Amino acid sequence: MSGARTVHLLRHGATVRPGLLLGHLDVAVTPQGIADCVRVVAGAAFTQIVSSDLSRAADCAAALGAPVRHDPRWRELDFGTWDGCDPATLPTDALAAFWRDPDSNPPPQGERWSGLVTRVTAALADLPDGTLVVTHGGAIRAALASACGFDARQVWAFDLPCAALLTLRLWPDTAQVAGLRT
C-alpha cells in the first residue's frame, strides 16, 4: 500500500526497581532485561533505532548493535511526586481517579495523559519506515491512542510486559496493529 510505514515499538527490559511507578526517574535496566530485548528483536527488520533518553530504554537500544538516536519525546509519562513510588503506598482514591481518567486526574505535579499523547504523536510522525523505537509502556500506549484512535481506558487493555515488541503498520490517515511478540 502506497505511503505505508512500519514502525516497531519495543518496551525496555525489566528494571532493577520493578513494580514502581517509573516515569522520568532514571532507573537502570537489569542485564536479563537487556538480554530479553535483544532476544525479542532478533529477526525483526529495522533500518534505524530511536530511543527514549532514559537509561532503562537507552541501554537496551545500545545493546542492539546499531547506532541509536535519543529522543526525549519517547519518555514515559511524568508521574510527578509519584515517580518512583510503590502504587500500594499512594492514596487509593487519587490513584483510582488517575487510572480512571489520567487526563483529568494527573499525578500531583505530573503530566496529563493528553500531554504524553501529544508528544508521542509528534515523535511518531517523524519516524521513517522501518524504525525501531525503544521506549516505555506509557509511551507505547500513547502511540496506540494516537495511531489507532484508542482512548486512555482502551490502551490499558493491552498487555505490554517488559521487552514486548509491538509492530504497527501506519498509513497516512490510519494505522493497524500488525503484531505483538513477547
UniProtKB/TrEMBL annotation:
Keywords assigned by UniProt, alphabetized: Hydrolase
Top-level taxon of the source organism: Bacteria
GO MF assignments: alpha-ribazole phosphatase activity
CDD domains listed in its UniProt record: HP_PGM_like (cd07067)
Cross-referenced Pfam families: His_Phos_1
Entries under Gene3D superfamilies matching the protein: Phosphoglycerate mutase-like
The EC number(s) this enzyme carries: 3.1.3.73
Gene Ontology cellular component annotations, sorted alphabetically: cytoplasm
Protein name (record): Alpha-ribazole phosphatase
Species this protein is from: Sphingomonas endophytica
